[in-house]
Amino acid sequence: MIVLHIDMDAFFAQIEKRDNPALADKPVIVGADPKGGRGRGVVSTACYIARKYGVHSAMPISQAYKLCPHAVFLKPDIERYKKVSQSIMKILAHYSTLLEQVSIDEAYLGLEVNDYEKAVKIAKRIKKEIYEKEKLTCSIGIGPSKLIAKIASGKNKPNGFTVIRPHGVEKFLKDKKVEIIPGIGPKTAEKLKRLGVKTVGDLRRLTQEKMEKLFGKRGRELYLFARGIDERTIERERQRKSIGKEVTFERDISSPQEVIEVALELLKEVLQEAKKENFHFSTLLVKIRYFDFETHTAQTKVNLCTPRGCTNSYTPGVYKMALLKLVLKFLGKKKIRLVGVRVK
Ligand SMILES: [Mg+2]
Predict the structure, then answer these.
(1) Considering 106, 231, 250, 277, which one is annotated as catalytic?
(2) Pairing with 99, which of 12, 87, 258, 320 sits 20 to 30 Å away (CA)?
(3) How far apart are CA 118 and CA 199, in angstroms?
(4) What pLDDT digit, counting tens, does each position of 264-319 carry?
(5) Strands 28-31, 72-74: parallel, antiparallel or unpaired by DSSP?
(6) DSSP assignment, residue 232?
(7) pTM recorded for the entire structure
(8) Is 106 a catalytic residue?
(9) pLDDT band for position 241 (50/70/90)?
C-alpha cells in the first residue's frame, strides 16, 4: 500500500481569501480578537504573507499583533470551514475507501497500489480536482506509511508535492531533527537534546528499553518511527461528529451549586478530549434530565475556537460562561438526575 497525506495550506486563511478577493495580497490572521494588542487568545491560522512576519498557529494573538499590526484579523467561522472540509473529504473518498480524516484540513488516503508512478498520478489528479472544485491548494506527501507521508506533506508547503519512496526513507530521516517525528514536541526534543540526541539518526542509538523508559507507552512506537517503521493502519471510521460526556447522579440533586460543579468538570473533560483529538467545533450543548425523566437540551454557538487555537488554556472563560448560561435555565425547578455536556 502507498499512503497519501493531504494537508490543506493555511486552511482557514485560504478560505477567507478565496471568499474575499480583497484580502488576496494582505496578511490575514484567523484567530482571537487582538483587541489592539491586549487580546488574550491565540492565532488559529496565519496566511503565508503573515507568516513572513513570523506569525504562526498557536502563537498568542497579542504577539501576532505586535509582529504584524496591519494584518487583517478575522474570527474563525468553523461552520463555513467544515462545509469546505466535507466537500474536500468527499473528493478524496472517490479515490479510495481507505480514507482517514485526521482533522478539519488533513487526511490520510491509502492506495492499494505498489507502483509509485501510479500513486503520483493519482495524487496529482487529487490536487487538481481540489483546486478546480474548491479553488484551494493543498500539500500532498506520498510514502510507504502514514509517518512518512505526513512528514513528506510538510516538506514543501504551500502547494507542495513530495514523494518519499521506501528505499529513500532511512536516508531521508537520518539527518533530520527529532522534531520531524510526529509525537516529538519541543519539550521532548529538549529532553532528548540533554542526552545528546538531536537528529533522527542520533535517536536510533537509543535502545527500545531506553525509549520505553523515556516515553512510556509511546516508547516502542517512537523507536520504530526513528527507523521509518510505522505499524499504524488507516482508520476509516474515525471521523467524529461530536464529543460529549454525561453523568447520572447516584441520587437526584437539588443543589444548583452541585450541578454546576459537575457540568464544569464535564466541560473540562470534553475540552481536553477535543484538544487531544484535534476536534473542531462550533456549538456547545447541555443536556439535563430531571428526576421524572423529563429531558431538555439547550445549545449555543461558541464559534470562537479550534482545538489548536483562539484560547490559551483550552478551558477558557468563554466556554464556562456559555455553559453556565445554558445550565442556569434548568436549575431551581425540579431535582436533577443527569447532566451532559457536548461539543459539535
Ligand atoms: Mg493544514
Answers:
(1) 106
(2) 12
(3) 32
(4) 999 999 988 887 777 888 889 999 999 998 999 999 988 655 545 544 334 467 78
(5) parallel
(6) P
(7) 0.75
(8) yes
(9) confident
